[in-house]
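1st attempt posting a full record on here, be nice pls
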Amino acid sequence: MSIKKVCVVGIGVMGNGLAQVCAQAGYDTAVVSRSEASLERGLKQIGTSMGIFVKKGRLKQEDADRMLAGLRQRATTSLEAGATGADFVIEAVYEDLELKRQIFKDLDRICPPHTILASNTSTFPIIALATATGRPDKVIGTHYMNPPPLIQGVEIIKSLMTSPETVQKTDEFVRSLGKEPIEVKDSPGFVVSRMICLVMNEAVRMHEEGVANVEDIDKISRLCFNWPIGPFQLIDLIGIDIVAAVLNAMYAETGSERFKPALQMVQMVRAGWTGRKAGKGFYEYSRLVSDGHALLQ
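the predicted structure (as tokens):
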């Protein structure tokens, strides 16, 4: 089975990056979202991202225009229209298990028998998605990192029912995107989320305890660990609501208290202070200071 047509379900932070990566790799790429407004926002972000690639000389303007036009032509609010005839589907919607299971059930009905159904979930067991379909051998996890156009590593998660052929085809597909696949077990949070969410959660707890303030914890992480950004900047980038949801999912799966979200994180989600997308999180984004961020007072 040769992969030619790809469908990305979801055009949020991860979905728009995945659509861009697939289009740039030469795949006939459809993208599906819940509304025309979200499609327009996502396509605008793809255009901005491609524009940066053009400025850096990594992409020609005419190629960027052609790929964006192709994505616009195949952008739809209909899962059936987007996924019909797809060889490979990447689900990249919000971390809601029942929503994802319903999407996989629908994809199983819509897609040809050969289609591989992949989830970009950062948390949920792949087996829970596989059992919503009649093709559990063709369901797999492909956990890309944010932002997808820039980060090379991709976790490949094989469930108990994923076939060796599906793993092989997925590895080949991920490599064709210029990424490096790394196979991990179907375990809560896999490797990346399990590690980084613990770091971010502990950073919030240290802030709660008064060990250090937000800016200084981020500064220590950048200067002492040589990280490009600190844990609070990363939480705001990902979305505090998403980080809390991932932690809660791992907490529910394992029962381990270390995954229970810090109280301040929970309260900020309730307040709607979810990070960059809301204009306010651990930093404010309506005004700038010397490092490009303003500390939330």
